Amino acid sequence: MSIPENIFRIKSTLPESVALIAVTKTQPVEKLMEVYNTGHKIFGENKVQEMLDKYEQLPKDIQWHLIGHLQSNKVKYIAPFVSLIHSVDSLKLLQEIDKQALKNNRVINCLLQIYIANEDTKFGLSFDEANKLIHSEEIKQLKNIRIVGFMGMATNTDFKQQIANEFKSLKHFFTKCSELETFNIKLTILSIGMSSDYLIAIDEGSNMVRIGSSIFGERY
Ligand SMILES: *Cc1c(COP(=O)(O)O)cnc(C)c1O
After folding, report:
1. What is the mean pLDDT of each run of 10 residues along the chain (220 residues)?
2. 125: which DSSP letter?
3. Ligand 1 center to 44 CA (angstroms)
4. What domains are there in the chain, each with its CATH number?
């Protein structure tokens, strides 16, 4: 199927409350334009340099989401335009995002990436670390960031029940933490689900899915 057909097929399966991030990593700008021309303008990239290159070449009304691991020293490059950072996993990174957001006279929306998989290849905070972070004194100093939710990735397995359980645990934590509301924390987004598991994620309460290969085909 073509890219536009894939986009329309996936959107038809998503409840209205669920936002779709088209994960465009490794894809050439021509293919991103095929998505753009369907009217879909929310793209996710996992590498800063690749996002920058594409940002420069493509229309300026695209919303760029950074979904991959972010190093503090690269925040400055995306701070002028990034629309949501899904992968915040430390106070130090959050402080740098705040500093760069201030320099650009804007507020940057962030998700905390929470580690839920039973693998050691994925980044993120434990529930305990995330809980400490959102209740910390330090976070209250950060005027130019907003924590708007959590992101998580399930274990790469065919065992659907395990994936569902991992998502369930994050949803539970999300619901608990949502009671906290401050000037820079208001949790409304739960970014869980990729091509292989987004239907499970939606069943478990996702309202933002990040889909690449089901739109573009396998990456090389
Ligand atoms: C690549 C990637 C995705 C999309 O993966 P697909 O299996 O191609 O849908 C989602 N989230 C993150 C963080 C990714 O790096």
Report:
1. 96 97 97 98 98 98 98 98 98 98 98 92 90 98 98 96 98 98 98 98 98 90
2. B
3. 9
4. 3-216 (3.20.20.10)
